[in-house]
Every structure is written in C-alpha cells, then in structure tokens.
Amino acid sequence: RRVLLEDQTDKKGRVPLGIKGRKQKRIVVTGGAGFVGSHLVDRLMERGDNVIVVDNFFTGRKENVLHHMGNPNFELIRHDVVEPILLEVDQIYHLACPASPVHYKFNPTNVVGTLNMLGLAKRVGARFLLTSTSEVYGDPLQHPQVETYWGNVNPIGVRSCYDEGKRTAETLAMDYHRGAGIEVRIARIFNTYGPRMCIDDGRVVSNFVAQALRKEPLTVYGDGKQTRSFQYVSDLVEGLMRLMEGEHVGPFNLGNPGEFTMLELAQVVQETIDPNAKIEFRPNTEDDPHKRKPDISRAKELLGWQPSVSLREGLPLMVSDFRQRLFADSKLSGG
Ligand code: NAD
Ligand code: UDP
Ligand code: UDP
C-alpha cells in the first residue's frame, strides 16, 4: 500500500530507474524518539539516509529508536531544543513538542525551540519542516477545515499555549522563509494514532485502547458527540516525506477525512477489543473543539498524497502493540 517516493528503494531494496547514485542526506529529526518521530526515523533509515535524532525524552522513549542503535547512519542526542545546538545537516524535521494535553501547560519549546531550529536551518542552508497541528484552527467555524481558514482560537484558554505556540511557530517559519530565504515546509497534522503512542498521555484513542485492554470503562468526555478524524501513523509519515521532498511550502493539512464522534470511536474500540467494554461519561475539558475534519484537496493535488489506512484497519495494529507493552509493564510491576 505504500507509494514509492522518487528517491526510495522498493521492498526488495531495488532502486527505481533514474535515481542511482542518489546522495545520502544528513537529516535531523527533533522529537525523533517520540511516537510520530520514531516512525519517520524508520522510513528515513530504510531509505539509507544519515539520521540524527535530537530529543530530551520528555514524552519520547529510547525504546522507540533502540533498533537503530549501533547503525553508523544513526545518532541519538539527548538535548532540549530550547537550548541552541550546532549541527551540519541538509534537512530538519522539527517535531519536538510537548504534544499531549496532559503535558501542554507552559513550555517554551514551540517558540524558542522552533526559533533555534530555524536559526540552525539559516546557518547551514537546510530545508526545515514544521509539524504544526489542526489545533491552529481552534474550535473551527468552518467545516471541514481548509488551509486558507484562519481559525478560531481562544488566546487565554487552557489549551492556548499549544494552539498559539504552534501558530507562533508557523509565523516564525514563514518569517524566516520570507526574510532569510529559508526553504520551509509546514504540515498541519490532524489526530494521529498507531503503535508506540504514549499509553497514558490522555489522548482519546490511546485512552480507549488502554482502558479496553485493562478491562476498565471507556471514558467519554461530554456527550461524546464531538467529532475528530483519525489518521494512521504510516499515512502521516508518507505525507511528511512527500512534503519535505516536494517544492511546496504549504501549509498542508495531513489527516484522514473519515470523521467519527467519540461515541462512534468507542464503538469501534469495543468491536476491535471487547464488545462488553463499558462506557462512562465524564465532564468535558474547557474549549474542546466540537468538530474537526481536514479538507485534504491541497495535499491530494500538490503532493499526490492521501491516506490509505482506515480506522478499522489501523486500530488492530495499534492494539497489538499496546497489548504487548501493557503486558510487559504488568510483568515488571509483578501484576
Ligand atoms: P510525542 O510526544 O510522541 O513526540 C514529541 C517528541 O518531542 C517526544 O519524543 C519528546 O520527548 C520530544 N520533545 C518534547 N519537547 C522537547 C524539547 N524541548 N527538546 C527536545 N525534544 C523534545 O508526540 P507526537 O504525537 O509524536 O508528535 C510529534 C509532532 O507532531 C509534534 O510536534 C506534535 O505537535 C505534532 N502533532 C501530532 C499529532 C498527533 O495526533 N500525534 C497531531 C497534531 C500535531
Ligand atoms: N541557532 C542554533 N544553531 C545554529 C544557529 C542558530 O541553535 O546552528 C540558534 C541561535 O542560538 C539563536 C536562534 O537559533 O538563538 C536564531 O538564530 P538566528 O541566527 O536566526 O538569530 P540571531 O542569533 O541572529 O538572533
Ligand atoms: N476524549 C474523550 N475521552 C478521553 C480522552 C479524550 O472523550 O478519554 C475526547 C476529548 O474531549 C476530545 C476528543 O476526545 O473531544 C479528542 O481528544 P484528544 O485529546 O485525543 O485530541 P484533541 O482534543 O487534541 O483533538
């Protein structure tokens, strides 16, 4: 199902015509020990590039990239991107971010970290890709969301530091692009799930899956009628790589247009894991967006990209990873 990028080998390691002798790229992935980052690193390593992961392990885990340790093409640096760093690279995938609701709070990573990575891009002439978010649309008044929509964000709410942090990061990226001629790429990522997701960081898919496996009730916040669109991680990684290699700045929505209410999601989790799993209603968080669904026409047209894994196909892949990790955890704690 994976579509080949121009400069990629196929499953059998054959190099498609016309790309022999392709120069190995030096690539930094900030946040590369995290959920999305580690899957991206797998693809870049598979392609034969030289990959440096910069991560402070705030929510990421060394286990996610352990299988590359010892490979001369791979390097892992424990570093907080809020501090400057000197590296010589061709491309920067900037994913470092306190990315889950439980970890938002105040954290300068989105602003200061992004500034440092743009400074690095400027100094060495690297191409810079920012992983922004659908949260820049806030509680959207347009549905589905198109990239030209400016959003509806509360500047002083509980989730503002994430939303506004990413909005500022986009502003900085565009200023460096216009002012210093940096090649930038901006992806606005919609809710993504898959293996290696943090088990307890409070996002809805990981919560429901962990709860069903632990035989706990699924916690639905509010009336459960709010919607989200869930994208499988391999689709996202394909989109990020196409964006980086392509000629368009963006921003591009990268998400799966399949839209589900939280009650529908709970139902899919029940079907996949345990039909008898109970549902428990909890008060919703403040400023929770009512609806979210990407319009991906721009990515389809300009990147030739669209997701190919449905929720019902992707969820079981995540469940087997969660089952293994939860089981290993319970063995460690003697449970
Ligand atoms: P994640 O928490 O698994 O990954 C983030 C990584 O960044 C972690 O490894 C963490 O340790 C690292 N990090 C955090 N602060 C850092 C700092 N100051 N210095 C160095 N490293 C730091 O989250 P993810 O889901 O993989 O998200 C990756 C990116 O994609 C983030 O920028 C996030 O905002 C964006 N995104 C993700 C989703 C999603 O649904 N997963 C949706 C929209 C946007
Ligand atoms: N920076 C960095 N690595 C580099 C180059 C710059 O971390 O290789 C940081 C630098 O410390 C600064 C930020 O990026 O805080 C912005 O750099 P820029 O050169 O754009 O701004 P200036 O230093 O001129 O204010
Ligand atoms: N949510 C839920 N139960 C949970 C966790 C989240 O019903 O255990 C809801 C949450 O209120 C929101 C939606 O699921 O409406 C998506 O939440 P998440 O934090 O995963 O992503 P985001 O709000 O950033 O899109």
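Residues 101, 191, 203-204, 207, 219-221, 226, 228, 262, 284-285, 288 surround uridine-5'-diphosphate (ligand 3) (CB under 6 Å).
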